[in-house]
UniProtKB/TrEMBL annotation:
Reactions listed under catalytic activity: ADP-D-ribose + H2O = D-ribose 5-phosphate + AMP + 2 H(+); 8-oxo-dGDP + H2O = 8-oxo-dGMP + phosphate + H(+); D-ribose 5-phosphate + ATP + H(+) = ADP-D-ribose + diphosphate
Gene: LOC109477274
The species this protein was found in: Branchiostoma belcheri
CDD domains in the cross-refs: NUDIX_ADPRase_Nudt5
Subunit details: Homodimer. Interacts with PARG.
Protein name according to UniProt: ADP-sugar pyrophosphatase
Domain of life: Eukaryota
Lineage of producing organism: Eukaryota, Metazoa, Chordata, Cephalochordata, Leptocardii
Matching Pfam families: NUDIX
Record-linked PROSITE patterns: NUDIX (PS51462), NUDIX_BOX (PS00893)
Transmembrane segments: none
GO molecular function, one term: ADP-ribose diphosphatase activity
Family named by the database record: Belongs to the Nudix hydrolase family.
Length: 222
């Protein structure tokens, strides 16, 4: 169903226009005018990436990469990264933006290699998913990948981060992912990307375990 379609026969919403308020090198801030179901025009403040390639629906790829080695537990590869926008270190999946002409699969494999040094093999690719739709039109595809840790190319992985990227590669056992991420956040001042945390919660739930960590009503202060 398109955004302009109604639900159960009611009129829907539709995009009217976009006015750019600020145009930077990487991002733009615009005011989006849309029509609500009653026909009234409303506005929304919208962040867009300037880097999305022509004809692409997806800005980039997010790589859920599992390192597999003989006689070792499977490990999820995550990156700890300084993110200036939140003035904090984050725990994220390796990820990055698509180059022009690059498929999402190729983007995933390239970003995995740049950020972690590992050469992986794509297992699956999600549809385009949105990242923070109340803020921006930013989108990503979730690409699952396997890394053969016994392959010679993966014995001593050497990351090649881009200029301005400051990353540390971290390994979390898949069989106790949520517990280990929770433990990590208690020791290190990191903010966990919600995709990572949701993935860990879903794994926990799939084992029939409850992913509760914090007490209800608590406020996370700075
Ligand atoms: N919002 C951004 N502001 C910047 O000043 N620079 C940015 C933004 N987004 C991306 N970039 C630049 C910085 C690096 O050179 C590359 C990294 O992008 P990529 O690795 O593809 O994506 P992320 O890992 O998600 O940052 O882009």
């Amino acid at each position: 169903m398109m955004a302009s379609d109604g639900v159960n026969g009611t009129p829907g919403c539709r995009f009217i226009k976009e006015e750019t308020v600020y145009q930077g090198e990487w991002l733009s801030l615009g005011v989006t005018t849309y029509q609500d179901p009653q026909g009234q025009h409303r506005t929304w403040e919208t962040v867009r990436r300037t880097t999305r390639c022509d004809g692409y629906k997806t800005d980039g790829a997010t790589v859920v990469a599992v390192l597999k080695r003989a006689l070792h537990y499977d490990q999820l590869i995550l990156v700890q990264q300084f993110r200036p926008a939140i003035n904090a270190f984050t725990l994220e999946f390796p990820a990055g933006l698509c180059d022009a002409g690059e498929s999402v699969e190729d983007c995933a494999i390239r970003e995995l290699r740049e950020e972690t040094g590992y050469t992986g093999q794509v297992i699956s690719v999600s549809p385009t998913t949105c990242m923070d739709p109340g803020l921006s039109n930013s989108t990503t595809c979730l690409v699952t990948a396997q890394i053969d840790g016994d392959d010679i190319v993966n014995i001593r992985p050497k990351p090649h981060p881009e200029e301005g990227e400051f990353l540390k590669v971290l390994y979390f056992p898949m069989n106790e992912l949520l517990t280990r991420i929770n433990d990590f956040t208690k020791k290190e001042a990191v903010t966990v990307d919600s995709r990572v945390y949701m993935y860990a919660m879903a794994l926990q739930l799939s084992k029939g375990k409850d992913p509760v960590q914090r007490s209800p009503g608590r406020i996370d202060k700075k």
